Amino acid sequence: VFESRERLLSFYRERDYLKAEVDIEEGEKPGDGRFLKIVIREGEPGYLKNIQFTGNASISAKRLRKQMLSRERGPFRFFTGSGKFDEGEWSTDLAALVGLYQK
Prior knowledge:
The protein is an alpha+beta fold. The chain folds into 2 domains: 2-41, no CATH class; 61-102, no CATH class. 38% of the residues lie in helices and 16% in strands. It has 4 helices and 2 strands, in the order H-E-E-H-H-H. A hairpin with a 5-residue loop joins strand 1 and strand 2. The N and C termini lie far apart (46 Å).
């Protein structure tokens, strides 16, 4: 049941439903049967609307943005995939920004 829940959450996150929730209830039916009740709340699709830097006195926002793989949602997003949130990519971006400041 736990694995099914995680697979469903992963499915929705891949399609930009970052706040999706999945509840699975398991039970027994009268007689010999069992049931699974799956409740999915998709929420609104999420995307990167704006990436903003504050407090960066020594390194320009332009240079910081160049370090990142993630991009803001743009007008050609259907072709470029810009604005899509990817947790792995975001972690890489954060590490790259920290690395830039540690140089």
